[in-house]
UniProtKB/TrEMBL annotation:
<dbReference type="InterPro" id="IPR043128">
    <property type="entry name" value="Rev_trsase/Diguanyl_cyclase"/>
</dbReference>
<dbReference type="InterPro" id="IPR052163">
    <property type="entry name" value="DGC-Regulatory_Protein"/>
</dbReference>
<protein>
    <submittedName>
        <fullName>GGDEF domain-containing protein</fullName>
    </submittedName>
</protein>
<feature type="transmembrane region" description="Helical">
    <location>
        <begin position="275"/>
        <end position="295"/>
    </location>
</feature>
<feature type="transmembrane region" description="Helical">
    <location>
        <begin position="28"/>
        <end position="47"/>
    </location>
</feature>
<feature type="transmembrane region" description="Helical">
    <location>
        <begin position="331"/>
        <end position="354"/>
    </location>
</feature>
<keyword id="KW-0812">Transmembrane</keyword>
<feature type="transmembrane region" description="Helical">
    <location>
        <begin position="307"/>
        <end position="325"/>
    </location>
</feature>
<feature type="transmembrane region" description="Helical">
    <location>
        <begin position="361"/>
        <end position="382"/>
    </location>
</feature>
<feature type="transmembrane region" description="Helical">
    <location>
        <begin position="239"/>
        <end position="263"/>
    </location>
</feature>
<keyword id="KW-0472">Membrane</keyword>
<keyword id="KW-1133">Transmembrane helix</keyword>
<dbReference type="Pfam" id="PF07696">
    <property type="entry name" value="7TMR-DISMED2"/>
</dbReference>
<feature type="transmembrane region" description="Helical">
    <location>
        <begin position="210"/>
        <end position="232"/>
    </location>
</feature>
<dbReference type="InterPro" id="IPR000160">
    <property type="entry name" value="GGDEF_dom"/>
</dbReference>
<feature type="domain" description="GGDEF">
    <location>
        <begin position="498"/>
        <end position="631"/>
    </location>
</feature>
<dbReference type="InterPro" id="IPR011622">
    <property type="entry name" value="7TMR_DISM_rcpt_extracell_dom2"/>
</dbReference>
Length: 645
């Protein structure tokens, strides 16, 4: 038997009991306040910009969790405006994804990146939706603002990096921090899904994607060619409609995934935006005509056939409207027409299946695949469902399965015709293997031609760049190359605490050579002068032709004024030698003006003017000599720095 004793303090009304309840309430209040304080701290932390730190081991990173976005409904903000509106940026992680649907807003993204790698690395930022009209990247760091541009309305040659998607490079030195701003706007769905890759991973992923796309379009090409051959043999209308459907749909898909703007219409710009809505809407129209022929609705379901004819006119009208409507309305109309057409054809297939029309079950399954893919893409375009690899490529996946099933349906129809046209069937079967072999051969030839074309374009571009920087007669650098060289040489001279000499050479009496001996002789003289100047110059020097008989030599690492004068005298000695011609030789002289700079003062324009003044001083003093510009003298030229021959 157990006895328990209860003290007076433990009774409900006792002072100890009251103190106990009070302490419990205080403890509860303390815990609530602590939780609220931690919640506030976490909220403030979420509002602070995060910096994405890269150590070089990452292969690919989705930037949504690290990005901030700002919508510019008027499209008026510049980079300076958005940098001043840092507080208006919203964390992208608050959104389900970065699909802004059909909008005319300009959207800015900001990502702060810092390198923790031990060596400089190059990263590739890829916008994973090819149908963006214009994307600009502003890469801000200690070296200022670096810009890159991409988008399917930008001529392909003007894109910062040649790729079907908007792609940009970001170079990070060890410990370097940069702020990256992306400005995007598009008439279509504004989807800003992006990925940051290291270079190797990007190339590997890009090659794999191109392989998959090549397989997809290879399949379309094979199906179209095969059924075109069947049409040629059998003359059945369904086959040619199927081929037209595959071609129009394939061109639309080329526009969606960026291959069209990369290879087929790289310079159409804004006009290229019409290709996508026009051809996908056209494929909807042809799809209706194909359904009427394939299901033989004119004979088996007259009422359904009349409805399909009306809807075909509606789809064709919408197709023509896409050519004149503004880009965004055309794309929205395309999405609506495509979605409803697929739904109409799916219901048509069900009704025909209920009537036991041959081939209707395959037709239903085929259009169910395309309906699913089209609905997923349309819902993604309108930002109803998330944007990811599957929803972005849903149309292509669904269309591949749909076309395969339709091809099977046509094969079934072909088997039915086989009983009636046995001889034609045998010929078609023989032709099938030939077509497939021919397709494989053509594919290899096409790949070879693409490779050759790419190499030829690269060589042509290299030649054009070289020609743009060269004087066509002498092969020396021209004014453009001279300006670029000076812009790079001036900072080097300042950093090295050295002098840079600009030597201006003007040939004496060259006009008389042209007038008396002819321009051909003058050209020979200029070519030999160029060769002599090049021979006298060091590897680090630049020899350029300004035009006519004026030449310039840029020499870095000059020790002093005497060193510069010795350089001028060497040039004068080389030019004073007789010039051999086909019918003899002539002697020429040169007036040489030299100006010096430490990389800061004087600047490029003043440096050129000083050399020009020194050269003309030499001409006025009797020609064939060297003058060094000296600003400390009473006149611009010091008599002690004027040397004659």
């Amino acid at each position: 038997m157990v006895f328990s004793a209860t003290s007076a303090d433990s009774l409900p009304g006792s002072p100890a009991s009251v103190r106990t309840r009070l302490s419990a309430r205080m403890l509860c209040l303390y815990r609530l306040l602590s939780a609220f304080y931690l919640l506030c701290l976490s909220t403030l932390a979420l509002g602070q910009p995060t910096v994405l730190t890269l150590d070089g081991s990452e292969a690919g990173i989705s930037l949504q969790q690290h990005a901030y976005y700002l919508r510019d409904s008027q499209g008026m903000f510049g980079i300076d405006d958005v940098r001043a509106r840092a507080a208006d940026f919203r964390p992208a992680r608050e959104r389900r994804d970065l699909n802004f649907s059909y909008t005319r807003d300009h959207v800015w993204l900001r990502i702060d990146i810092q390198s923790a790698a031990e060596e400089p690395r190059t990263w590739v930022l890829e916008m994973r939706y090819a149908s963006l009209d214009r994307v600009s990247l502003f890469n801000i760091g200690a070296d200022g603002v670096l810009q890159q541009h991409a988008g399917d309305t930008l001529p392909y040659q003007q894109r910062s990096i040649g790729h079907r998607n908007p792609v940009f490079t970001i170079e990070l030195a060890p410990g370097e921090k940069r702020s990256v701003y992306l400005l995007a706007h598009s008439e279509g769905s504004l989807t800003l899904d992006n990925q940051l890759w290291n270079t190797a991973a990007f190339h590997e992923q890009s090659q794999m994607t191109y392989v998959l796309l090549a397989i997809y379009f290879g399949m379309l090409l094979a199906l179209a060619s095969y059924n075109l051959m069947l049409f040629a043999v059998l003359g059945e209308r369904s086959f040619v409609l199927y081929v037209c459907f595959v071609i129009s749909f394939g061109i639309g898909v080329l526009a969606i995934n960026g291959l069209g703007a990369q290879y087929l219409w790289p310079n159409l710009g804004e006009i290229g935006n019409r290709i996508l809505p026009f051809f996908l809407s056209l494929s909807a129209t042809i799809g209706i005509l194909f359904a009427q022929s394939f299901l033989d609705t004119a004979r088996r379901a007259e009422g359904l056939n009349r409805f399909l004819s009306i809807w075909a006119w509606v789809a064709m009208t919408a197709t023509l409207i896409t050519l004149v409507a503004d880009g965004q309305r055309a794309l929205q109309l395309m999405s609506v027409i495509g979605l409803f057409t697929t739904l109409v054809l799916f219901v048509t297939g069900i009704l025909c299946a209920m009537r036991r029309i041959p081939g209707s079950l395959i037709f239903v399954c085929a259009w169910l695949m395309l309906l699913t893919g089209g609905m997923l893409l349309a819902l993604r375009n309108f930002s109803v469902i998330p944007s990811n690899f599957f929803t972005v490529n849903a149309m292509q996946i669904g269309s591949a399965m749909e076309m395969l099933l339709l091809s099977l349906g046509l094969a079934a129809r072909f088997n039915e015709l086989k009983r009636l046209k046995e001889s034609a069937q045998r010929q078609a079967l023989k032709s099938q293997k030939q077509v497939l072999v021919s397709l494989l051969q053509q594919e290899k030839i096409l790949e070879q031609r693409v490779t050759e074309r790419t190499e030829a374009l690269a060589q042509a571009n290299a030649r054009l760049e070289l020609l743009a920087m060269q004087d066509p007669l002498t092969g020396l650098a021209n004014r453009t190359a001279l300006t670029q060289h000076l812009q790079q040489a001036m900072p080097r001279t300042e950093r090295r605490n050295e002098l840079l000499a600009l030597v201006l050479i003007d040939l004496d009496s060259f006009k008389a050579i042209n007038d008396e001996l002819g321009h051909d002789t003058g050209d020979q003289v200029l070519e030999q002068v160029a060769a002599r100047l090049t021979a006298c110059a060091r590897e680090t020097d630049l020899v350029a032709r300004l035009g006519g008989d004026e030449f310039i030599l840029i020499s870095e690492g000059i020790l002093d004024q005497d060193d510069a004068l010795r350089l001028g005298e060497r040039l004068l000695d080389a030019l004073s030698l007789p010039v051999s011609l086909s019918d003899g030789s002539i002697s020429i002289g040169a007036s040489i003006g030299i100006s010096l700079t430490n990389g800061v003062q004087p600047d490029i324009e003043t440096l050129m003017r000083h050399a020009d003044q020194a050269m003309y001083q030499r001409k006025r003093s009797g020609r064939n000599g060297v003058v060094l510009y000296n600003p400390l003298a009473d006149s611009p030229f010091s008599p002690g720095k004027l040397r004659e021959r």
